[in-house]
Design goal:
single chain; about 140 residues; alpha+beta; 4-stranded antiparallel beta sheet; 11 strands; binds FE2/S2 (inorganic) cluster
Length: about 140
């Protein structure tokens, strides 16, 4: 039993549409991460500040929070001395952890170490953690 030329044409049309749909889905899957990478950060922008209660930042401790859509951390190395840093490692972008008993940051990915000021103490990070401006306002800290 042979198929008519009309059936062959319909099959070709159907396969063309199916392959076109798959190509569109694959193109979207590749383009979406690139689009997200190039898009501005959510909640960001010049002048945006974050308010954090001073009580959340203990002397000698670290308080992690979101700043302009990225992880950040506030420290109080000594009473009344506040430091705000990006918590994003400058090597490959992992999130640093606070090591309380050592009083420093450790990157869990490749062992990068940072001081309370964000300077590199060891490991592969090429530069210090980004620092942010901190202003004390009564019982709160304004970052940014
Ligand atoms: S990403 Fe932090 S040390 Fe590699």
């Amino acid at each position: 039993m042979s198929e008519s030329p009309e059936n062959n044409q319909q099959r070709r049309t159907f396969l063309g549409i199916l392959l076109g749909g798959v190509a569109v889905i694959l193109a979207g899957a590749f383009a979406w991460p690139i689009f997200r990478f190039l898009s501005p950060l959510e909640g960001g922008g010049e002048g945006s500040q974050v308010r954090v209660s001073k009580e959340q930042v203990k002397v000698g401790g670290a308080h992690f929070f979101d700043f302009q859509g990225r992880p950040a951390v506030l420290l109080q190395p000594s009473a009344g001395n506040f430091i705000a840093l990006s918590a994003v490692c400058t090597h490959l972008g992992c999130i640093v952890k606070w090591v309380d008993d050592k009083g420093e940051f450790l990157c869990p990915c490749h062992g990068g170490r940072f001081s309370t000021e964000g300077t590199v103490l060891g490991g592969p990070p090429p530069k210090a953690l980004e620092t942010y401006i901190v202003n004390v306002e009564d019982t709160d800290l304004m970052v940014g």
